[in-house]
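Record minuted for everyone:
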Amino acid sequence: MQFCDDCGSLMHADGEEMVCSSCGERVPKDPEAAEEYVSTESQTFDDVIETDETAGDEGKPTAEVHCEECGNDRAWYTIKQTGSADEPPTRFFKCTECGYRWREYA
């Protein structure tokens, strides 16, 4: 990775130059480090699982938990660190049947 000397943002390869993603600063690639550069132009996002609240639930892991709303025994879940690092993470659930949401603290 290379960072811009002017603004500190991440730079990306453009031919024989490195270009700043924020300010547009251009510098030639270092010929000695040329083998270290990796291009991600062909990268696909087919295997990415969305985890924000607006994303669909397909592909998220499920757990055997009891939904208090409908009695279903399966829910999608995500785990987030909501407190300080020395506290256990919070698990957020969404029922696969009725969509009811709840959280569990470990």
About this structure: The domain at 62-105 is CATH 2.20.25.10 (N-terminal domain of TfIIb). The longest strand covers residues 75-80. The mean pLDDT is 81.
